[in-house]
């Protein structure tokens, strides 16, 4: 698909503008096929968002064609890729309800363009960070992105997906009121909507004027172009393609392996949370020595050792211990906001009990009983459940391999 001899251009872009998603999608599919592009494009009634790769000439044609459909100037964040590899397996255009899923569709549509926070250039954003008093600097990306790199002093709202932003706002609005709030994300798209949502809430509380909300225009991407030494950004900028990250100038590794806590900041499609499948930082050494490859994200770290996806490798004794600790965890999860947690735990507890029952019914062979013998089962991919030798995590998102003919 891509010319293998030439370097390629990767563009990251978005535009919020009332649109007809169906006709945008049709136009995109045509462009992708005609120009031999690869990438991911989302279209919605509120606009477009994409990461697209192609050779320089094709990308220039693509940009001009897309711009024609939008009245406001699109900010094309370009980077050169010299690896000669397709960063995506194909070109996929998806029609979605929201470009950034807050789960708000229908209930209270936001006018993102009119309601979003004041945009600051990288230089303005940088200067404001010089005086951190009374500031609330918030990273509106997911925790697995924050963990490999973020601005000094930034708050991590602890999200595994964007739909958790409204909950963070609800729980923290009292603390934010009367402060200067600064938001940032990878390329700017999430801040537009996150700031609009926050300002709507502040307005409802009559705190709109006393609480200025700013957003970093062009996101970390543009900031690192303006401050090649990293400025106030530490670590790497996670990106949603096979590069997985773009390193900032300061070269520090701020991520930590969730197993050994050693410095590590490279995500891998085969190293995901066994509970929620969010990416988890695990170093190569720990991954190589793990027989099962089941890991836990920060949100689910208290389930380590109690919650496993694959149960067939455990003995009766081990399963009984798991059932016991799952029950204890379940007893601790009280309150309406823990309902999802309780459901997750309950479901797993039932699976463990079922498995135990199955083992107890199974005829026992010879001397070794399932009570003490660990069953030997090879490691499997957490996402697709195939043996890991067949799928070392290449079914996950943008790591997905191009289908073999
Ligand atoms: Zn490690
Ligand atoms: Zn998790
Ligand atoms: Zn897989």
Automatic annotation (TrEMBL):
Gene3D superfamilies: 3.30.70.100, Rhodanese-like domain
SUPFAM superfamilies, per the entry: Rhodanese/Cell cycle control phosphatase
InterPro entries with a match to the protein in the record: Rhodanese-like_dom (IPR001763), Rhodanese-like_dom_sf (IPR036873), Rhodanese_C (IPR022111), TrhO (IPR020936), TRHO_N (IPR040503)
Residue intervals of the Rhodanese domain: 131-232
CDD domains for the chain: RHOD_YceA (cd01518)
Name used for this protein in its record: Thiosulfate sulfurtransferase/rhodanese-like domain-containing protein 2
């Amino acid at each position: 698909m891509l010319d293998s001899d030439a370097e390629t251009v990767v563009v990251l872009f978005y535009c919020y503008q009332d649109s007809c998603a169906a006709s945008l999608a049709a136009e995109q599919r045509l462009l992708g096929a005609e120009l031999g592009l690869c990438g991911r494009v989302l279209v919605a009634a509120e606009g477009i968002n994409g990461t697209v790769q192609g050779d320089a000439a094709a990308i220039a044609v693509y940009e001009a064609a897309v711009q024609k459909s939008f009245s406001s100037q699109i900010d094309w964040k370009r980077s050169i890729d010299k690896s000669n590899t397709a960063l995506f397996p194909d070109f996929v255009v998806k029609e979605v309800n929201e470009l950034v899923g807050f789960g708000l569709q229908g209930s209270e549509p936001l006018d993102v363009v009119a309601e979003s926070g004041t945009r600051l250039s990288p230089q303005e954003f940088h200067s404001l960070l010089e005086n951190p008093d009374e500031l609330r600097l918030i990273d509106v990306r997911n925790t697995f992105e924050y963990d490999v790199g973020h601005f000094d002093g930034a708050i991590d709202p602890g999200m595994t997906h964007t739909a958790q932003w409204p909950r963070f706002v609800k729980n923290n609005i009292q603390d934010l009121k009367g402060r200067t709030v600064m938001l940032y994300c990878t390329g700017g798209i999430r801040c537009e909507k996150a700031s609009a949502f926050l300002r709507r809430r502040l307005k409802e509380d009559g705190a709109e004027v006393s609480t200025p909300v700013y957003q970093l225009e062009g996101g970390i991407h543009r900031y690192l172009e303006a401050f090649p030494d990293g400025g106030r950004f530490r670590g790497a900028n996670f990106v949603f393609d096979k590069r997985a990250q773009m390193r900032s100038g300061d070269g520090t590794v701020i991520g930590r392996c969730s197993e050994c806590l050693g410095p590590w900041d490279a995500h891998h499609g085969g190293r995901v949370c066994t509970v929620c499948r969010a990416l988890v930082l695990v170093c190569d050494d720990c991954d190589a020595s793990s027989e099962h490859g089941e890991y836990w994200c920060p949100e689910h770290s208290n389930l380590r050792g109690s919650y496993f996806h694959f149960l067939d490798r455990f003995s009766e004794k081990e399963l009984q211990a798991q059932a016991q600790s799952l029950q204890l965890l379940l007893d601790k999860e009280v309150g309406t906001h823990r309902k999802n947690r309780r459901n997750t735990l309950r479901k797993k507890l039932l699976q463990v009990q079922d498995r135990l029952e199955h083992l107890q019914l199974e005829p026992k062979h010879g001397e070794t009983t399932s009570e003490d013998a660990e069953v030997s089962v090879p490691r499997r991919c957490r996402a697709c459940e195939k043996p890991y030798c067949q799928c070392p995590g290449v079914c996950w998102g943008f790591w997905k391999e191009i289908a073999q003919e």
